[in-house]
Design goal:
The chain is 36% helix and 22% strand. The chain has 608 residues and is α/β, with parallel strands linked by helices. The protein has 3 domains: 243 residues, 4-Layer Sandwich (Glutamine Phosphoribosylpyrophosphate, subunit 1, domain 1), CATH 3.60.20.10; 191 residues, Glucose-6-phosphate isomerase like protein, domain 1 (Rossmann fold), CATH 3.40.50.10490; 142 residues, Rossmann fold. The strands form 5 sheets. Strands 3-2-4-1-10-9-11-14 form an 8-stranded antiparallel beta sheet, with helices on one face. Strands 5-6-7-8-12-13 form a 6-stranded antiparallel beta sheet. Strand 15 and strand 16 form a beta hairpin. It is globular. The protein starts with a strand and ends in an 18-residue tail after the last helix. Bound molecules: 2-deoxy-2-amino glucitol-6-phosphate (AGP). The site of 2-deoxy-2-amino glucitol-6-phosphate has 16 residues, from helix 9. 2-deoxy-2-amino glucitol-6-phosphate binds next to helix 9.
Length: 608
């Protein structure tokens, strides 16, 4: 999704902005642009495609100045092209924008009637013209931006420059994320933390309706209507190196291999040997946890797969009924939420538009809300009543990996906490579970040792046109996740199915061309899954069996057996998720695909 970077200070703006945009590349984009103010003149460079095109243009026609704004665009209104790329300019007012302006057609019509001439197909250009219109009326840059923004409907994060007021930069947000960084009288503003992390760790997180006026070595935050706001600066502790590739060929591979550490960090300080789970930011007392009559878990994509696994944990350990919803469905289906309903919102980025809207839907109905988020101070984390942070560190690859396994771990801790509060599990049982959790990072480490074998499997099956992934119980969400990962980054069609459903349709697809990945750890349904395996083989299908110590029993029933470390069944999805990630990764890498930034996808889906 689009990325914003702005800078005002005493250094050259262009290299700082370019560096920030490069660090936001992971969000996905199709064009990029930069504008600076130099000796009272605005200059803009824009290019379709990857940043390298913009860099080449800047080499030929450099941009000077110590104040500027930059943008990577992910098309929503109008095709990806240079003309539609940001920044957009009208009468010396220059704007970069993330989000969607819902009333832009109306505003465009009104402004066209007043003689404004539009060059692009974007909603953003309307903002530049609207500010220009009010600037002509008021003669004040600040007043013009406030008036224009108050007329917008929809979501925005904007940063604005004005040729006639060169010492200033304005930023504001409503519905799309924006963070301010500061150091030594210089200011950075960006849509995401990694853009600035190499320059400063001191950051101010803006809330909806806030407006920042940057000047010469100072900044003022107020509400759009002018009311003053006091903001606290927070120190970000992420190591900037975590946002680099660290010797791996792709971020995704690095992030897959970071999972033992990410899981250990997510557990750290939260589980006690004596049989307790402490989730400090949950903000729910035992009494409140006991009152819960119903839970919803709401999310999108991979986070929704984690939600499906969370349902198993919560229903088993806390005996509360759980409905799992896709956020874009939940927000429009008028769900029955009461004061005793808890809605868990799962989101790596904490900025997914549908999940944010689902959160607001649940809050609007007076239900309690808890976020499971990876990005600290993200919108979903801040707007929820409580939060369980997954401490996976920044996830740069568009395909979610370490965020997923840490979400499962966070949900397991939550289910134990809920079960303890409600008395459905004892502290003795809890001690056993804590022991299992503590052993998990090492088991994931051992699972990663299968990397070579999985790469070989990828080489053998990379020519297939379709894949089927099958699993039962808590392995069904892993089948869905395996299929999603493969689709996302290798563009090979894949479907995930509950193994028991195979006979009800998908079996018709099976022939010698079809690799079928079957998740078959030794659990209650192992025998049934083994029968499904026979059925696939009987129809000529090529079986990749993913199993644990039951591996030997499957000899002769599968073309390839991946033997993984055994862990208690509840936690097995964390283990089986890893070969799904590695298989997708190696197939995509061998096919030469853009693993970290697959086509058409964005890391953080901040529009509906
Ligand atoms: C995962 O590989 C995806 N790229 C995608 O499905 C993602 O999980 C989804 O967009 C939700 O994102 P979130 O966790 O940041 O809310």
């Amino acid at each position: 999704m689009c990325g914003i970077v702005g800078f005002i200070g005493s250094n050259e703006a262009t290299p700082i902005i370019l560096d920030g945009l490069r660090r936001l590349e992971y969000r996905g984009y199709d064009s990029a642009g930069i504008a600076t103010l130099n000796h009272g003149k605005v200059e803009i460079r824009r290019a379709a495609g990857k940043l390298v095109n913009l860099e080449m243009m800047l080499q030929e026609r450099p941009l000077g100045g110590s104040c500027g704004i930059g943008h990577t665009r992910w098309a929503t209104h109008g095709r990806p092209s240079e003309i539609n790329a940001h920044p957009h300019c009208a009468g010396g007012i220059v704007v970069v924008h993330n989000g969607i302006i819902e009333n832009y057609r109306f505003l465009k019509g009104m402004l066209t009637g007043k003689g404004h001439h539009f060059r692009s197909e974007t909603d953003t250009e309307v903002i530049a013209h609207l500010i220009e219109h009010h600037f002509k009326e008021t003669g004040s840059f600040e007043a013009a931006v406030r008036l224009a923004l108050s007329e917008l409907r929809g979501a925005y994060a904007v940063v604005v420059l004005c040729e006639k007021e060169p010492g200033h930069l304005i930023a504001a947000k409503s519905g799309s994320p924006l963070v301010v960084g500061h150091r030594g009288g210089e200011f950075y503003v960006a849509s995401d933390i990694p853009a600035m992390l190499s320059r400063t760790r001191e950051m101010i997180f803006l809330d909806d309706g806030e407006f920042v006026l940057f000047g010469n070595r100072d900044m003022k935050v107020s509400m759009l209507d002018g009311r003053k706001v006091r903001k606290e600066s927070k120190t970000i502790t992420w190591n900037p190196l975590l946002a680099e590739k660290g010797g791996y060929r792709h971020f995704m591979l690095k992030e897959i291999h970071e999972q033992p550490r990410a899981i250990a960090d997510t557990l750290a300080g939260r589980i006690q040997e004596k049989g307790e789970v402490q989730l400090e930011e949950l903000h729910l007392t035992d009494v409140e946890l006991r009152r819960i009559e119903k839970l919803f878990i709401v999310a999108c994509g991979t986070s929704w797969h984690a939600a499906l696994i969370g349902k198993f944990f919560i229903e088993k350990l806390a005996r509360v009924p759980v409905d799992v919803d896709i956020a874009s469905e939940f927000r429009y289906r008028d769900p029955i939420v009461t004061g005793n309903t808890l809605t868990l919102l799962i989101s790596q980025s904490g900025e997914t538009a549908d999940t944010l809207a689902a959160l607001r839907e649940a809050k609007g109905k007076k239900g309690k809300t808890v976020a499971v988020c990876n990005v600290v101070e993200s919108s979903i984390a801040r707007e929820s009543d409580g939060v369980i942070y997954t401490h996976a560190g920044p996830e740069i690859g568009v395909a979610s990996t370490k965020a997923f396994t840490t979400q499962i771990v966070a949900l397991y801790m939550f289910a134990i906490r809920l079960g303890l509060a409600r008395g459905t599990i004892s502290s003795g049982q809890c001690r056993g579970m804590i022991h299992d959790l503590q052993a998990l990072p090492e088991k994931v480490e051992k699972t990663l040792m299968q990397d070579g074998a999985i790469e070989e499997a990828a080489r053998a099956y990379m020519g297939a046109k379709d894949f089927l992934f099958l699993g039962r119980g808590n392995q069904y969400p892993i089948a869905l996740e395996g299929a999603l990962k493969l689709k996302e980054i290798s563009y090979i069609h894949a479907e995930g199915y509950p193994a028991g459903e195979m006979k009800h349709g998908p079996i018709a697809l099976i022939d010698e061309q079809m690799p079928v990945v079957i998740l078959a750890p030794r659990n209650e349904t192992f025998e049934k899954v083994a029968s499904n395996m026979e059925e696939v083989r009987a129809r000529g299908g090529r079986v990749i069996a993913v199993t644990d110590h039951a591996g030997e029993e499957l000899t002769g029933k599968a073309d390839l057996i991946l033997n993984l470390p055994a862990v208690p069944d509840d936690l097995m999805p964390v283990i089986t998720a890893v070969p799904m990630q590695l298989l997708a990764y190696h197939v995509a890498a061998l096919l030469g695909k853009d693993v970290d930034q697959p086509r058409n996808l964005a890391k953080s889906v901040t529009v509906e």
